[in-house]
Structures are given as C-alpha cells and as structure tokens.
Design brief:
about 25% strand; 3-stranded antiparallel β-sheet; alpha+beta; Beta-clip-like; globular
C-alpha cells in the first residue's frame, strides 16, 4: 500500500495513473506490502481462475520473487493504477527483509507533488521472466 498521499487521475502513459499528492524525498519509502491491505494468491489458485480472472490479476499484480505468490492490491487501492516504464521510472524496487518480506518501493530521486509515480515491473515481477506480458512493448 502507498505510504504517502496519492491521487489517481488520467495518465499520459496509459489510462489512469497514481500521482504524488505531496513532495517525496529521494530514498523515501513510497509503497510497502501490507498483509492487512494487500492480497496474495498462490500460483495454483491463480491457475484455477478463468482467463478473465487471470488477466485482471496479471494487470494489477505481480509474482513475488520472495514468496512465489501473486501479490495484488484490493479493489479501490490506488496501487492498481501504478504504471510501468523501463526507462522513465521514478521509483525503484528494494529487497530488504529487515524492512519487508516483500519488495518495496523507494523514490529514486526527489519527486514533486502531482508527478506520476512510475515503476519498472521487470525489477520485481517474477512472472515477467517466464513470459513477456501482452501489455509490454519495447518502447516503454
């Protein structure tokens, strides 16, 4: 879940995106897995979903390199709208079990209020290593 104020609005990247609703300092933790808020699903349960259910989970979630489970935000959570860029991301995934059992995201630089928060899914999504998702292009 996002630990800083955010707002969801139209994105130039795709559809809606998550935007900072306050200034964020370089190195600040911006998003961290919360077992009280965020959802998980085993790969076996994912395999049991119909195609529409799998597509929804693939769009908003990731396979954790730590647990091997799907991790995804609940309906209504701004994290469902976090967009991807391989080159223009301002957040980076960090793996530090002293902070979280799951990857978490920190600001790569100072981020100003109203700037879109963007991550590189390749940094933390183990499912991408198995197959290139349909939404991913070489120009992101």
């Amino acid at each position: 879940m996002y630990l800083i104020p955010t707002v969801v609005k139209k994105s130039v990247i795709e559809g809606s995106g998550v935007f900072a609703d306050a200034d964020i300092g370089d190195g600040e933790i911006v998003w961290k897995f919360s077992p009280i808020n965020d959802l998980t699903m085993t790969t076996e349960d994912y395999d049991g979903l119909d195609e529409a259910g799998q597509a929804e989970i693939r769009k908003v979630g990731y396979v954790s390199p730590a647990s091997g489970q799907w991790v995804y935000p609940p309906v209504g959570d701004a994290a469902r709208y976090t967009n991807h860029s391989e080159t223009n991301n301002n957040l980076t995934a960090v793996f530090d079990v002293a902070v979280s059992d799951e990857p978490f995201f920190v600001a790569r630089r100072d981020i100003i209020r109203s700037e879109e928060l963007i991550v590189n899914y390749v940094e933390f999504d183990a499912s991408i290593k198995k197959m290139k998702p349909e939404w991913m292009s070489t120009n992101t």
